[in-house]
Design brief:
Radius of gyration: 24 Å
Shape: globular
Strand content: 25-35%
Largest sheet: 10 strands, mixed
Structural class: alpha/beta
Length: 461
């Protein structure tokens, strides 16, 4: 589908220019953008976690800014808000415990959310006691003698090796009662990070069946190394082999894994915030372009260096602020096509806000003809390389090249497809429905030592 309309060009150009400046003295528009970012990521917004009062305050703030910018309401019943019902299950710290008890005596306790975590599901067992076995990459042919066991798998994320869903399926089919994935520390393009904020699963509160599966557990590499060493194995060597994609021998730990899960369930509503800049050509009234960024963040969680609030300035307050700043800049001056501005909820919990919008367009926000998604940009260093997700999936990719080229910005496809970023952000539900969509990240070359250092520091710290 060929999309060369001025609206896509203008929107993308604004988004690039807003992030491209390296001046020590930002212009007035950039200062306004950062003030909006600070307002959305301030402590009073409490990290904008879905289902929290802080998120509701942030949604009200965005709706008010859309109104002030002259956007027309595009949500439910003539409002700016599109309401969604959610159900949630959480494994809570109080009453939850994990340990590995060795047949030779002694046990190794595992610290919840610091060394071990679990993806909660409805009807998960309150207690889990089973022998612990290691089966390498956990392909179906690796799953020998695992019935009734918790099977430990190397948590590979590389092409050609079993992904987490395939490992879970193989373990389930072989009769295992739990799956434990060990961090791949060699996957440095997205290093594993601990602690985790919390262990929660969020789904739509509708007739959709809720996920039920054997417990899927994540284990930190250091803890695995200790447990493997105690079982007479060389834990560091096992992880190094996995990181290089080499064969790994199966073994049993001669130990029992014990877990107790305390869970809490709740139901709540959360809103997408939708506004529309009307188009000037009546013949294109039902062919809008969608600008989208997610409003939600992580909220409160396990403290990091004493701070338990995950403010989320660059994930994704800064890019909701970009939508607002662009709306202010247009001041009601439309393009031929309408432009929908969407700040959506529950991206961090499964893209639920964008999934809902993609399947439940409103009368004022019908299915778009193109989507520009702003997430994960992370302006940590000057913008010289723009990684564009879905670059070759529609002619929107050429539009990006046409805009970025005169700005001196190299456009490239994702060089790290193992991260699966294409399916991890809010343009993906629209791509699944055949809508041309793109999303952007700041790229860098490994030879750019300053950019690489800033990127690694951001990820690690």
């Amino acid at each position: 589908m060929r999309i060369y309309q001025r609206v896509a060009t203008a929107c993308a150009a604004f988004a690039l220019a807003a992030c491209a400046s390296t001046s020590a003295a930002p212009d007035a528009q950039t200062e306004a953008w950062w003030r909006t970012t600070a307002a959305l990521s301030g402590d009073d917004m409490e990290g904008r976690d879905v289902g929290s009062p802080g998120y509701d305050r942030a949604a009200a703030y965005v709706a008010d800014r859309f109104r002030s910018a002259g956007l027309q309401p595009a949500g439910d019943n003539g409002t700016y808000l599109q309401r969604i019902n959610f159900a949630e299950i959480e494994v809570i710290s109080e009453g939850t415990s994990f340990d590995v008890a060795f047949e030779t005596g002694g046990a190794r306790a595992l610290r919840f959310l610091h060394e071990i975590s679990v993806a909660p599901t409805w009807e998960m067992p309150a207690d889990l006691h089973a022998r612990l076995v290691f089966r390498g990459y956990c392909a179906p042919h690796d799953m020998t003698d695992v019935r009734g066991a918790v099977v430990v798998c190397f948590g590979t994320r590389r092409a050609g090796q079993p992904a987490s869903a395939a490992q879970l399926e193989a373990a389930t089919n072989a009769g295992a009662i739990g799956l434990m994935r060990v961090d791949d520390m060699a996957f440095t393009i997205e290093p594993p990070r601990w602690p985790l904020a919390y262990a929660r699963t969020v789904v739509l509160d509708d007739a959709t069946p809720r996920p039920r599966a054997i417990p899927s557990i994540r284990l930190g590499a250091a803890a695995f190394t200790e447990i493997a060493n105690a079982a007479g194995q060389n834990g560091a060597d096992i992880l190094a082999r996995g990181g290089r994609g080499e064969p790994m021998a199966a073994f049993d730990f001669a130990a029992q894994f014990n877990a107790r899960f305390a869970t809490r369930e709740r139901r709540y509503t959360s809103d997408n915030v939708l506004g529309v800049l009307p188009g000037t050509d009546p013949a294109l009234a039902n062919e809008p372009v969608l600008l989208i960024a997610h409003l939600d963040g992580y909220g409160y969680g396990v403290p990091v260096r004493g701070d338990n609030l995950y403010n989320g300035a660059l994930d994704d307050a800064a890019y909701v602020a970009t939508l607002i700043t662009f709306a202010d800049a247009r001041a009601g001056q439309g393009f031929r096509r309408p432009v929908i501005f969407a700040a959506v909820t529950a991206e961090e919990k499964g893209l639920w806000g964008s999934r809902w919008l993609a399947t439940h367009p409103t009368p004022a926000a019908p299915t778009p003809v193109a989507v520009l998604n702003l997430d994960q940009l992370r302006p940590l260093y000057p913008l010289r390389i723009l990684t564009t997700l879905a670059l070759e999936d529609s002619t929107l990719g050429q539009t990006v090249r046409d805009i970025a080229g005169p700005m001196g910005i190299e456009v490239r496809a994702d060089l790290e497809p193992e991260r699966n970023l294409l399916r991890r952000t809010d343009h993906w539900p629209f791509m699944q429905r055949g809508v041309p969509s793109v999303s952007f990240l700041f790229g860098f070359d490994e030879s750019d030592t300053e950019a690489r250092a800033r990127y690694r520091d951001w990820y690690e710290n």
